[in-house]
Design a protein that fits this description.
Blueprint lengths: L2 E4 L2 E4 L3 E2 L11 H13 L4 E3 L13 H13 L7 E6 L1 E4 L2 E4 L3 H15 L6 E4 L8 H13 L6 E4 L3 H11 L3 E5 L10 H10 L2 E2 L14 H4 L1 H10 L3 H10 L14 H8 L8 H9 L1
Parallel strand pairs: 3-4, 4-5, 5-8, 8-9, 9-10, 10-11
Antiparallel strand pairs: 1-2, 6-7
């Protein structure tokens, strides 16, 4: 698979988002493990998760534990795969809340370390700015985790350009990734993508196919993606990922998957080359 930079590390140009494996009313863990193994077989070397990816508060950390189990069973370690997790979201029952305090971020990181079974997290990202906590204070907490060796690389998520610039000032070369929503449906993170390109920071589009409830009918909602897909005899989802990859060498999409077929189709996007005219049509759609 094509490789892209994540700070001092190279990873496959397509990552795997683990969220769909843990947030449904019924989660098929055996199928999820097979899907992760298929991703590894296909050359995926970045897996994205978060401590809050679970059905409810009672199962907090479910996705991290699931990924750790799958990697153990496969025999893959930190030298083989970068596991990117996030902290800063909390759960109360099934509700999502925010806590951007540095002390909570450290507590969350320590919990993730235990669940993932590692001495240091490959990429640790602050999940979402907390309006009740000064963002510089939160970033200081993230930098402390980096300085103390609990994490190897730092990232932020759901950040605007000013927040990215501030994080770059606070974290320096320790900031290697920004994870924002970007897809054919949601394109308002273009400014953040452009800034990451300028700064040489990896941009990880989350929900790059439009989200769990919308990915399947992407081609129905965005006709040009279906038309380009028909011309190449591939899926509209594969076209969407190839379109995103073509936007910048810093882009590393992390499509969620809970089936082997889905992850294999996503990985194949790294081999799909779209023409300048096709890219322009997709941009204008």
């Amino acid at each position: 698979m094509e490789q892209r930079r994540l700070g001092d590390r190279t990873v496959g140009a397509i990552g795997l988002g683990g969220m769909p494996m843990s947030v449904r009313e019924e989660n098929d863990e055996a199928l999820a493990v097979r899907t992760i193994h298929a991703a590894l077989d296909a050359g995926v070397t970045l897996i994205d998760t978060a401590d809050a990816y679970s059905l409810s508060e009672e199962e907090f950390g479910h996705n991290e534990e699931l990924i750790a189990r799958a990697l153990r069973e496969y025999g893959a370690g930190a030298d083989d795969v970068v596991v990117a997790t996030k902290g800063g979201h909390t759960r109360s029952g099934t509700e999502w809340h925010l806590d951007g305090r540095p002390e909570y971020l450290r507590q969350a990181c320590e919990g993730s370390l235990q669940r993932l079974g590692v001495e240091a997290i490959g990429l640790y990202q602050h999940h979402r700015p907390d309006p009740e906590v000064d963002y510089a204070e939160t970033l200081g907490g993230l930098k402390a985790l980096l300085d103390d060796g609990l994490i190897l690389r730092a990232g932020i998520s759901n950040a605007d350009p000013d927040q990215i610039r501030l994080a770059h000032e606070v974290l320096g070369e320790g900031l290697v990734a920004v994870q924002n929503e970007f897809s054919p449906r949601f394109r308002t993170s273009q400014a953040e993508l452009d800034l990451c390109d300028e700064l040489g920071i990896a941009f990880l589009p989350w929900s790059p196919l439009g989200g769990m409830g919308s990915a399947a009918d992407l081609g129905d909602r965005f006709a040009p993606f279906a038309e380009v897909a028909a011309a190449h005899d591939v899926s509209p989802q594969r076209v969407a990922l190839a379109w995103e990859l073509a936007k910048s060498p810093v882009v590393i999409p992390i499509p969620g998957a809970s089936r082997v077929e889905s992850v294999l189709d996503s990985v194949a996007a790294t081999q799909l080359r779209l023409s300048t005219d096709e890219l322009a049509r997709l941009d204008a759609s």
